[in-house]
Amino acid sequence: MGLASKKANVAFDSIHSSTDKQLEKKVVYDTKDLNLWYGKDHALKNINLSIYEKEVTAIIGPSGCGKSTYIKTLNRMVQLVPIVKISGDISYRGKSILDKSYKVEDLRTRVGMVFQKPNPFPKSIYDNVAYGPRIHGIRNKKILDEIVERSLRGAAIWDEVKERLHENAYGLSGGQQQRLCIARCLAIEPDVILMDEPTSALDPKSTLKVEELIHELKNNYSIIIVTHNMQQAARISDKTAFFLNGEVVEFDDTDVIFSNPTDKRTEDYITGRFG
Length: 275
Ligand SMILES: Nc1ncnc2c1ncn2[C@@H]1O[C@H](COP(=O)(O)OP(=O)(O)OP(=O)(O)O)[C@@H](O)[C@H]1O
Ligand SMILES: [Mg+2]
Description:
One of its GO terms (cellular component) is membrane. GO terms for molecular function: ATP binding; ATP hydrolysis activity; phosphate transmembrane transporter activity. This is Phosphate transport ATP-binding protein PstB. Residues 29-270 form the ABC transporter domain. It contains eleven helices and ten strands. 40% of the residues are buried. The chain is of the alpha/beta class. Helix content is 41%, strand content 24%. The chain has a single domain (27-271), classed as P-loop containing nucleotide triphosphate hydrolases (Rossmann fold, 3-Layer(aba) Sandwich). It has helices at 3-24, 67-74, 104-110, 125-135, 141-154, 158-161, 174-186, 204-217, 230-236, 254-259, 264-270; strands at 27-38, 41-52, 56-60, 84-92, 95-96, 111-114, 192-196, 222-226, 239-244, 247-253. Strands 6-7-8-3-9-10 form a six-stranded mixed β-sheet, sandwiched between helices. Adenosine-5'-triphosphate (ATP) is lined by residues 38, 41, 43, 61, 63-69, 81.
């Protein structure tokens, strides 16, 4: 078989398998013709992306191409910047989140976020995880204890901290702090977890732990992760979006992006020719 027909076959198979999968999977976020400006700076240009539930979607691209801006539009964080203007639409579970009537508090209880630098509160490990549930009015100690344990187990850090739950979270290592932040996120029982370069400040061992965790979490959550690490995107994601200068150059199944990209710029980026 010639290379061209082999490639066509691979493409055909992947279209087939992704269609089959997508028939069962629901869209969590639908982004339509999204444009975003910081003052005059056009940071996101005509973005069209559908994020499916219980999948890991990776966002890759060189520095300054709009990755963080995009994921911060998904929980309406970027709108806190006064000079931001937006056009187009983002719907979450079928409702427009850019609509003024959509309550941001409702969105934040469904969508958790983990940042590049672990950002625990200056409180005990226990109080970090119990923070969200307490805000939602849960006061019963037994219930809080259960939520704290379940969330810390879910974030694969329970065994490391169970003897020191009432010590300050700042005493944990960076990798432990990042998993604690993931536990804090799980405690509100979100639907979606947004992660902006969650392992860039971690050593290889902690990175591996967080990657294994993401793999586990996708059974129950939809995850969108920004990463500069190509191997990581290839290892952990189902779909990959390649951003460049505020545009989505290519969005497809991760194995297609990494083995048979359509656009030359995607190939150049993933093979390390720029960025
Ligand atoms: N608060 C802000 N005010 C003005 N411009 C901003 C702001 N935040 C980001 N930008 C600009 O928007 C563009 C996209 O930035 P963004 O942080 O989304 O990039 P990124 O892809 O996440 O980059 P990196 O990989 O370095 O984190 C850049 O040109 C940046 O300077
Ligand atoms: Mg960024």
